Amino acid sequence: MKLNGEVIARTALGLLNDVGLDGLTMRLLAKELGVQAAALYWHLKNKQQLLDAMAALMFAELNDGLEAPRAGEDWADWVAGRIRATRRTMLSYRDGARVFAGTYIAESELPRSLELTLGTMVDAGFSVRDAARGFPVLYHYAVGFTIEEQARTGAAYVDHNPYHADELGEAVDAQRFPLTAQAAGQLFEVRTDEGFEDGLQVILAGLRTRYLSA
Q1: Residues 6+ apart with CB under 8 A from 68
Q2: Residue 208 maps to a domain
Q3: What is the extent of the structural domain holding 165?
Q4: pLDDT tens digits, one per residue of 109-130
Q5: What are phi and psi of 83, to 5 degrees?
Q6: Model confidence pLDDT, tens digit, residues 2-14
Q7: Quick check: is 110 in a domain?
Q8: Are 203 and 141 a contacting pair, CB within 8 Å?
Q9: Long-range CB contact pairs, 49-54, < 8 A, 24+
Q10: Looking at the domain assignment, is residue 57 inside a domain?
């Protein structure tokens, strides 16, 4: 197999489920590829470039088959579908959201993806400025939520997951903090599909109210 940036990045994504982002080193990656670590630096100069390349592959996966909204499809339904797909893609890799966060995606599909998203929102009545301000709120919500969601699996902890909802609830003094104790199951829930959807709908409602209700 010819070594190049894409091969290195795909191999790195394959290692994530075993070692996590913190355990992913250039040395380990070189061992997996059967080369010396120095060989990797001909293609990716540092770990940040590796993360950028990994994020680009995830972004390409996310956008596979991306099409404009169907005739009559509501803008919010289409945009929500994009945000759900972003979360699914990040969840398919251990620490996938941390890979996505803060990376530069030099991906040919990026302008097309943005054009379709902005166009969908502008057609619904958003100004270009408001669409450009509004959509990143949804995207950042997905990334931030999924970072926290993946952390709560406890994969980074060897012996014990401190995010266990029952234990977190028991640790709260119900006499002093009755509302926190009552809400512990919701605040620290690991199964988070419903929570994600609630937050997504809150943001969509806020975008409608702020930008489309005038």
Answers
A1: 116, 119, 120
A2: yes
A3: 155-191
A4: 788 999 999 999 999 999 999 9
A5: -70, -40
A6: 899 999 999 999 9
A7: yes
A8: yes
A9: 49/5, 50/8, 50/9, 50/12, 50/26, 51/99, 51/103, 52/103, 52/104, 52/105, 52/106, 53/5, 53/6, 53/8, 53/9, 53/12, 54/9, 54/12, 54/13, 54/99, 54/103
A10: yes
Instruction: Show Cβ contacts of residue 34 under 8 Å, excluding neighbours closer than 6 positions.
Output: none
181 and 106 together in one domain: no
**Burial class (CB within 10 angstroms; exposed 0-12, middle 13-18, buried 19+) of 80:** middle
Rounded CA-CA distance 67/46 in Å is 34
Q: Give exposure, 156-186, as e/b (b: 16+ Cβ within 10 Å).
A: eeeeeeebebeebbeebeeeeeeeebeebee
Residue type, position 125, single letter: G
pLDDT at residue 196 greater than cutoff 90: yes
Question: If residue 10 lies in a helix (H) or strand (E), which one and from where to where?
Answer: helix 5-23
130 and 173 inside one domain: no
pTM: 0.88
